[in-house]
Amino acid sequence: MAQNGTESTSTYLYDPTILSQLESSAFHAEYKDGVKPLNPGENFKLRPLCLEDFDKGYLQLLGQLTSVGEVTKEQFEDRFNKMKACDDSYYVTVIEDTSVNQVIGSATLVKEQKFIHHCSARARVEDVVVSDVYRGKQLGKVLVDVLVALGKKLNCYKISLECKDHNVKFYKIFKFEATHGQNYMQLRFFD
Ligand SMILES: CC(C)(COP(=O)(O)OP(=O)(O)OC[C@H]1O[C@@H](n2cnc3c(N)ncnc32)[C@H](O)[C@@H]1OP(=O)(O)O)[C@@H](O)C(=O)NCCC(=O)NCCS
Known about the structure:
Order of helices and strands: EEHHEEHEHEH
Mean pLDDT: 89
CATH architecture: 3-Layer(aba) Sandwich
Number of helices: 5
Strand order of the largest sheet: 1-2-3-4-5-6
CATH superfamily: Gcn5-related N-acetyltransferase (GNAT)
CATH class: Alpha Beta
Bound molecules: coenzyme A
Number of strands: 6
Largest sheet: 6 strands, mixed
Strand content: 15-25%
Radius of gyration: 16 Å
Helix content: 10-25%
CATH topology: Aminopeptidase
Distance between the termini: 34 Å
């Protein structure tokens, strides 16, 4: 983390100080260097994705969500740098258990620039996952709560997501609701 000198700010996918400006009720402790300790006494840190997370089990965590495939460190870094170059677009937010140096939760907010709604932007919640051994500790709630606060802070006019039936109840906690007459449709090219 930035505070112990092992990671520099430049390796963050997005500016971590934005996290310290969020109006989020899901966590209470003070920020340090824009990186959030979730609760006093715990080793969970909320922060943007870092380049170093390749070695902290990030892709293995995503593997609990869907198929990831074989991704080399070079491919990971290339994709990370492309996302970082799209300024103000990719807000991949993770929770690290610093006692084991592992990323144990992740959720992404993607900001999409629009011409509509007075050249506004919309946000999409993607790839929400908490490691199976850490579930039930309110970490998923913290992640989604932070993304909602982030979407507001980034002046998005709405946030949307797609989820399986069994997760609808989870997202209702944050006041997401299905819209009558709207359909989620897809054309899938490969898994
Ligand atoms: C969905 C997921 C992220 C939840 O993470 P988590 O850290 O276990 O959830 P939390 O501990 O923060 O749960 C917060 C609350 O939501 C409830 N909850 C959690 N998962 C739920 C679900 N699938 N459906 C309904 N309620 C759920 C919890 O019971 C808890 O309620 P409480 O506040 O009354 O105790 C996690 O189960 C996961 O990673 N699942 C596999 C990947 C996945 O399906 N991701 C979603 C893709 S759309």
